[in-house]
Amino acid sequence: MSFSLHFELARGESVYDAVLTAYADKAQEHQESNGTGVEAARAVRVAVGAVLAAIEAVGGNGADYYVSVAGHVNPDNQPSPGWANDHLTVSVSVKSYVGADAGA
What DSSP assignment string belongs to 26-80? Predict the structure, then answer.
């Protein structure tokens, strides 16, 4: 099933904690109730790495960020009639840089 997480990440905040908290608050119960809890948890763990890589590319530890993680997983990551194919999308954009608000 599909999930979507959107949150702000403050400089110095743990990416791991922020992603897992957003998942627990917004999607975990739904994923577990529809039989895709294991698959969704795996996708969310992979998303942590993607968020870390994106932060390194767009501002490093010197910025605050907007983060979005969205995806869809099927049971056992296999095709399911009537369900979309699996996917994972991660978006990270700078909210503000340390000592400046250029572009905000």
Answer: HTHHHHHHTT-HHHHHHHHHHHHHHHHHHHHHHTTTSEEEEEEEEEE--GGG---
Whole-structure pTM value: 0.86
Q: What is the pLDDT of residue 101?
A: 52
Rounded Cα distance between 42 and 36, Å, is 10
Q: What angle do CA 61, 63, 67 make, to 5 degrees?
A: 95
Task: Note whether 34 and 60 are within 8 A (CB).
Answer: no
Helix (H) or strand (E) holding 6: strand 2-9
Q: How far apart are CA 28 and CA 20, in angstroms?
A: 9
Find out whether 93 and 63 touch, Cβ atoms under 8 Å.
no
3-state secondary structure of 91: strand
